[in-house]
Amino acid sequence: SPSDPDLVERARKAKEKLGDKVFVLGHHYQRDEVIQFADVTGDSFKLARDAAARPEAEYIVFCGVHFMAESADILTSDDQKVVLPDLAAGCSMADMATAEQVAECWDVLTEAGIAEQVVPVSYMNSSADIKAFTGKHGGTICTSSNAKRALDWAFEQGEKVLFLPDQHLGRNTAVRDMGMSLEDCVLYNPHKPNGGLTADELRAAKMILWRGHCSVHGRFSLDSVNDVRERIPGVNVLVHPECRHEVVAAADYVGSTEYIIKALEAAPAGSKWAIGTELNLVRRLANRFAPEGKEIVFLDKTVCFCSTMNRIDLPHLVWALESLAEGNLVNRIEVDKETEAFAKLALERMLALP
Ligand code: 13P
Ligand code: SF4
């Protein structure tokens, strides 16, 4: 829907007043009405780096979700303030792994006698607490674009990986990119005693996958792939690795948000694409590439936004910018010092990956 012209004008004015003091980051899944005010757009990893590369900006307004704002706070200097325009913009996947649950899991691994062999690898889409756990136990963070490199590194450090919190990215990377079998992976369910696994099952596993998933990407099904192939002959199916294994196995191409954008930029005129990722991004890409004769459709028939990403809307952005312009620091996301130190260790291991 077109943005309210009054709000557009107010956002523009507040941003102008703040000048270089503010830097607005927009994740690819954000609404158009918000993206128009982003100084840069990108995936969660790129945005965290972009924030760190702007030391002159006193305020980083993060249009994305909570774990991204935390990562930006960890990677920026202490006097830079990261602001999330709506504090309710969380991530259901990140919420599926709490610090208590992960500490309990480590106890289970210790009791099974395998904790020393296990290297934690945590997806960027996790809380600062989980990143700190990862750093403390010798592990690294990964994103959807460097998951294979992170796993290669982890298997040089130990014999087993505990992958948090997205089972699908973990399984897809292990099976698709690393040549492991589905039997090499076990699923740790934090809601069951001992994760629902026996000590023998844990000892036999190479990949211990946390039972988390993305509520958006988890909705794509094998049926959606089969349907679109029937509807659009010759279509290329391109999906995000947060999709379920059978969807990824049936797709033509698999990759992160940035990969998807690059693949479409390189696609020839006349080609047809069905994309399995968040709808705000797919719609923007469809509009952007339509004039070049590239037909881009959403992989599913039902509408599928990320509801928490969508919480950041123009009214919230205007409120945050106007508050900052009046000297009121609102909705600051600040990670405590100890958590930050260990989380940073894990993030820096990722940045040092070959
Ligand atoms: P990226 O931003 O790393 O592409 O991850 C996708 C996602 O689900 C973000 O919330
Ligand atoms: Fe979390 Fe999925 Fe939304 Fe990304 S798209 S913020 S992983 S729920």
UniProtKB/TrEMBL annotation:
Pathway: Cofactor biosynthesis; NAD(+) biosynthesis; quinolinate from iminoaspartate: step 1/1
First-level EC class: transferase
Cofactor(s) listed: [4Fe-4S] cluster
Keyword Metal-binding set for record: yes
Cofactor: how and how many bound: Binds 1 [4Fe-4S] cluster per subunit.
EC number, as in UniProt: 2.5.1.72
Compartments where found: Cytoplasm
Reactions catalysed according to its record: iminosuccinate + dihydroxyacetone phosphate = quinolinate + phosphate + 2 H2O + H(+)
Residues that bind iminosuccinate: H27, S44, Y123, M124, N125, S144, H240, P241, E242, T257
GO MF: transferase activity
Predominant subcellular localization, coarse grouping: cytoplasm
Binding positions for [4Fe-4S] cluster per the UniProt entry: C91, C214, C306
The entry's keywords: 4Fe-4S, Cytoplasm, Iron, Iron-sulfur, Metal-binding, Pyridine nucleotide biosynthesis, Transferase
Similarity remark: Belongs to the quinolinate synthase family. Type 3 subfamily.
Function: Catalyzes the condensation of iminoaspartate with dihydroxyacetone phosphate to form quinolinate.
NCBIfam families for the chain: nadA, PRK09375.2-2, PRK09375.2-4
Protein name per Swiss-Prot or TrEMBL: Quinolinate synthase
Organism: Streptomyces purpurascens
Gene behind the chain: nadA
